[in-house]
Amino acid sequence: MTMPQSAASVAHHVFPVTVYWEDTDAGGIVYYANYLRFAERARTELLRAAGIDQRELAAETGQLFAVRRVEAEYLAPARLDDSLEVVTRVMTTRGATVDMEQVVRRGDDVLVRMMVQIACVNGRGRATRLPAAAARAFGTGGARS
User: Fold this and answer.
1) Count of the separate structural domains present in the chain
2) Distance (Å, rounded) from C-alpha 48 to C-alpha 117?
3) Residue 139 within any structural domain of the chain
4) pTM for the predicted model, two decimal places
5) Is residue 5 part of a domain?
6) Does residue 57 carry a pLDDT above 90?
7) Are 69 and 137 in contact (CB under 8 A)?
8) pLDDT tens across 108-140, in order?
9) Known catalytic residue: 108?
């Protein structure tokens, strides 16, 4: 994986989301599973901001990032045309995993709080150590317990 040595740390990332019709149920409220889609997009953009090209990583090393665990707390609904932000914070890294908090908010109002663990896996789906450059980009300076 080619990653610039000066890749910025992305221990904190903000991703804007606008709610469209396709995101809502018949009542005009965001369908609960769509928050997972918003969070996935935010994590992808966090990796891009770190200089991690997921296709290149897979092609060169066979490594992929996969969600291992998600815990979500739904606090308030979002509605059609709302402007939201998904704030992603890297909490910890370990050999093959990264724990993140993802918060979906509308202004100062927290709508959804998620704890997400992603794992670095090989082509067979087996856990594999995070690439050193990725661990640095997550703001950890390397994997830690």
Assistant:
1) 1
2) 18
3) no
4) 0.86
5) no
6) no
7) no
8) 999 999 999 999 999 898 999 998 778 887 865
9) no
Note the pLDDT tens digit of each residue in 79-108.
Answer: 999 999 999 999 999 999 999 999 999 999
- Which has the closest alpha carbon to 33: 20, 44, 24? 24
Classify residue 66: in a domain, yes or no.
yes
Looking at the chain, how many residues does it have?
Answer: 145
Element (H, E) at 112: strand 109-121
Cα distance between residue 11 and residue 27, in whole Å: 36
- Find the CATH number of the domain harbouring 96: 3.10.129.10
Query: pLDDT value at position 8?
Result: 52
Catalytic residue among 25, 82, 108, 109: 25
Extract long-range pairs of 102-110: CB within 8 Å, 24+ residues apart.
102/39, 102/42, 102/43, 104/17, 104/35, 104/38, 104/39, 104/78, 106/78, 106/82, 109/76, 110/75, 110/76
Residue range of the domain that includes 40: 12-134
Question: Token digits for 5?
Answer: 């040595």
Mean pLDDT, to the nearest integer, of 36-52? 93
